[in-house]
Design brief:
mainly alpha, about 160 residues, 7 helices
Length: about 160
């Protein structure tokens, strides 16, 4: 039983780790923090692996990741702006200037707004599921997502025909 459990979890991990890294990065905007969030998520998921139903494992993992992100935002130390920019290697990307603009714009949203925008548009979840994940009313998800998208549109350039 234990070997089968480990094999099932290993297969799930291999199939989903990149997806959850992408979502975690969209939540926090930092690859190192995203790695930590995903690692902590998989540790918590493994502890409960026997009790998680196979048909709800993605939703359960997403819920763990979201809770870790929101809890970390409440307890983490704030960043301070300095006059010296630290050397930071950006991940390879086709449109890195657009990616940086989106990351910067997302970082200006509140953590819950950012989570709602990421879950609605990156994860393509329905309003009801996002509301359930965050423990808020569907109307709250709709209004906060609309405000978040409006804030993003205010700071991001309008897409050209090539970028759509």
């Amino acid at each position: 039983m234990g070997a089968s459990r480990d094999l099932d979890f290993s297969e799930y991990f291999a199939a989903r780790v990149q997806r959850f890294r992408r979502v975690a990065f969209a939540f926090c905007g930092d690859w190192h923090q995203a790695e930590d969030l995903v690692q902590a998520m998989f540790v918590q998921l493994y502890r409960r692996w026997r009790r998680v139903r196979p048909d709800t494992v993605d939703a359960y993992a997403r819920r763990i990741l979201l809770n870790l992100f929101l809890a970390g935002r409440r307890t983490s130390v704030r960043e301070y702006v300095t006059s010296v920019v630290p050397e930071q290697e950006s991940p390879p990307a086709r449109d890195s200037h657009i990616r940086l603009d989106v990351e910067r714009a997302l970082s200006d949203l509140t953590p819950r707004q950012r989570a709602m925008v990421v879950l609605r548009f990156l994860e393509d979840l329905p309003v009801a599921e996002v509301a359930s994940l965050l423990g808020v009313a569907e109307g709250t998800v709709k209004s906060q997502t609309a405000r978040g998208v409006e804030a993003l549109r205010a700071v991001l350039p309008a897409p050209t025909g090539e970028e759509r």
